[in-house]
Amino acid sequence: MYVAVKGGERAIENAHAWLAEERRGDTSVAELSLAQIREQLSLAVNRVMAEGSLYDPDLAALAIKQARGDLIEAIFLIRAYRTTLPRFGASRAVDTGAMACDRRISATFKDAPGGQVLGPTFDYTHRLLDFKLAAEGEVPPAPQAAPRGEPTPHITEFLGQEGLIQPEPESEAAPRDLTREPLEFPADRALRLQSLARGDEGFVLGMAYSTQRGYARNHAFVGELRIGRVAVEMDIPELGFAIEIGEVELTECETVNQFKGSKTEPPQFTRGYGLVFGQSERKAISMALVDRALRWQELGEDFLGAAAQDEEFVLSHCDNIQATGFLEHIKLPHYVDFQSELELVRKLRREAEERIAHREAAE
Question: What Pfam families does the record tag this protein with (predicted)?
Fold first, then answer.
């Protein structure tokens, strides 16, 4: 039996007001500005932009502030806002080889052509709390690297010159757009990469970690990891040529994986690929590992039953907005559903008690 809830609208309005008060916190403490969030919580901003599929640091900062630091809620806000924006066209594929790199490392070649740039990284920090930050002291400026005058070549290009890495096939067909079309299986590699780029960082990291622990037997080296800014160009039909409309910060990772060859392919290296908005190297590396695991069929490898090899499992569960929506809907009113199950359990109990009574009477 359904019991109507009264006063729901008023309760919701009060809950919203209470939420706003909780978001603001102690009013004696200065309120965070969007500029502070954008500049000092930049990695959180980058994640919201990447998984929200919208490159706008100011809007991502606003979403983080509104969501009280809940990044998945912030991503939800960004995606919802994104659906209201008109689409004027599509940009050309960005040239990451022309990236102005702030960080560029390789785990495969010490003397990488073009040099290595350590850049801003946690890799060699001591992971000790810095109590000087609690004192809100000024941080001395870091030395600035000299700007690069020429494009930085990709490491895998040098392996390709010797024929040691599988060449990537080029396709003239425009890739499908996951933000405008529903995900369908089987998905091609471009669609899988879109899904992984929007996927939850923690989930993709877990899948990548599983491949390293042997659940896909796929040993990878980071051929190259680069972070920097690239130009975005768009073709203007009225002009007959492309113009630069801005630039975005990206993290790109190419992994180099062993490949024993197949009936049609000689032994060589293969690659996994990750490309993410902002400085998001953990996500880009994870994405590259999972991308390579999902290529088992294309490369003629055996399916080992690993979760990271299962395209439908990975892509159907990596989206944190879908997962959050389905998870959190169970806390909403389900009075009718529960009442029907409650009546069913009562009926089953009565029938079980009657059977026991009949059996005891027969004995």
Answer: PhnI (PF05861)
Using the predicted structure, report yes or no on whether residue 2 has a pLDDT greater than 60. Answer: no
Residues 101, 56, single domain; the answer is no
The CB density around residue 117, as the number of other CB atoms within 10 Å, is: 17
CA distance 38 to 48: 11
For residue 351, give the amino acid letter. E
Distance of CA 179 to the CA centre of its chain: 14
**Nearest partner of 249 among 94, 121, 83, judged by Cα:** 94
Give per-residue pLDDT as tens, 193-222: 999 999 999 999 999 999 999 898 778 899
Question: Closest by alpha carbon to 186, among 174, 197, 195?
Answer: 195
How far is the first Cα of the chain from the last one, in angstroms, to the nearest whole number?
A: 39
**Two structure tokens written together for 233:** 């160009």
Whether 103 and 198 map to the same domain: the answer is yes
- Asked if the peptide bond before residue 186 counts as cis, ω within 30 degrees of 0, the response is yes
Contacts of 295 (CB under 8 A, 6+ apart): 189, 270, 272
